[in-house]
Amino acid sequence: MRTLLLTGQSGTGRTTLAAATALAAAREGTRTLLLGTDRTDTLGAALGTPTGPAPVRITPHLTVWRPDATAAFRDDLAALQDRASAALDLLGAARLDPEEVTPLPGAEELAVLRALRDAALSEAHDLVVVDLPPAPQALALLALPEELRRYLRRLLPPERQAARALRPVLGRLAGVPMPAEWLYETAARWDVELAALTAVLADRTTQVRLVADPTPAGADAVRTATLGLALHGHRPEALLANRVFPEPEGDAEGWLAGPLAQQRKVLAEWQESYDVRPVPHLGRDPRGTDDLAALPVPAAAPGSARVAWPVTDRLAEDGVLVWHIPLPGAVRDDLDLIRRGDELVVTAGQFRRIVPLPSALRRCTVDGAGLSDGELRVRFAPDPRLWPATR
Fold it and tell me: Average pLDDT, stretch 206-216?
């Protein structure tokens, strides 16, 4: 199964093109699931058919699903209260009724990620098209599984679970319930779920498409989104330039001359760095499957959109190993690096990621870094205390 994620600046027609992409794949005979992330039914408006928590069949090969974050959060809370019943009884705490609960921030993102995981594990579809939120929220969502796993490992280190076998004995000796058992069980289950989500997002068949209007503001948004995606190991598989005005037969006149000149300039710049797919303006807001079919969106082609972060061996020449981190569009003054234990904290503009060091680099010290041609190169020198001695 393949996964295609669509995001872009708010108001660029992202949801419309996600629906058009899924419909085009389904018309080619690909069993397609279109996954919505908007709490309002924008997908239903584009498709001309209401969508919701129950999967809806649009065509023989196209199904649309918008997960219910509220129901998922209530179910999780009820299950957590059941597992923590001993601790709650010990504290004299009253349980929360699921009907009185409203989702906390982050619940919608987790519901979407779980739906994506379930779809990836299912054999019912060949392609999952995900209508992600606007780019800033989408990038935070893509980073969420990795960050949550890191938090769990720091708060509940796996090596400390070795004492779990003693907890029932300690509980009997102390005469009170010991909540640590369910806590570790819950953490372990979450870690497995988050690992599955991380695997889906990091899979070589998972691709990302950007949607943007060919305007100066759209160009700025694309540069920012590309940098954020690169920091998390993705590159855009295609850039859908939406609502492109048709070229006039002669010289453009009047009010249209300015927007057309801007459009040509932005498209020319994009074509130097992206696989640009212009989507023409229909002269109206697309509504229904007939309008969506008129939008010439490209099919989701197999291939990898992952960005490699290779380590090159320059020990013989310069005595260092170099870690190459592609960061297109990064600005030197907006970059920051911090080595913390076996992790590297990389900040690029408004984005930050904490990544584990490759095994060879854990035995090294940072020897410097530089940005050149959209690539951050971090130099590591072997630490004599940790590096294997040579004869």
Answer: 95
State which fold the 1-306 domain adopts: Rossmann fold (3.40.50)
Residues whose CB is less than 8 angstroms from the CB of residue 104 and which lie 6 or more positions away in sequence, other chains included: 73
Q: Are 209 and 236 in contact (CB under 8 A)?
A: yes
Q: Which CATH class is domain 311-382?
A: mainly beta
Rounded Cα distance, 117 and 123, in Å:
12
The arithmetic mean of pLDDT across residues 376-385, rounded, is 93
Percentage of residues in the chain with pLDDT exceeding 90? 52
Q: Please name the residue that has the structure tokens 């709490």.
A: 39
Counts of helices then strands in the chain (DSSP H, E) = 12, 15
Concatenating the DSSP letter of every residue in 44-66 gives HHHHTS---SS-EEEETTEEEE-
Query: What gap in Å lies between CA 239 and CA 208, rounded to an integer?
Result: 9
Structure tokens at 354: 């904490």
Mean pLDDT in residue range 326-349 = 94
Please name which of 180, 209, 213 lies closest in space to residue 305, comparing C-alpha atoms: 209
pLDDT category of residue 40 using cuts at 50, 70 and 90: confident
**What is the chain's length?**
391
Compare 238 and 122 and report the one with higher pLDDT: 238
The pLDDT score that the predictor gives to residue 93 is 66
Token pair, residue 381, equals: 């020198």
Listed in sequence order, the DSSP H helices in the chain are: 14-27, 42-47, 69-83, 85-91, 107-121, 135-155, 167-174, 180-202, 216-231, 257-271, 288-293, 315-318
Using the predicted structure, report yes or no on whether residue 273 has a pLDDT greater than 80: yes
d(CA 136, CA 113): 16
CB 64 within 8 A of CB 58: yes
d(CA 237, CA 219): 17
| Domain residue extents for the chain | 1-306, 311-382
Q: Which residue has the tokens 């070589």?
A: 204
pTM of the model: 0.86
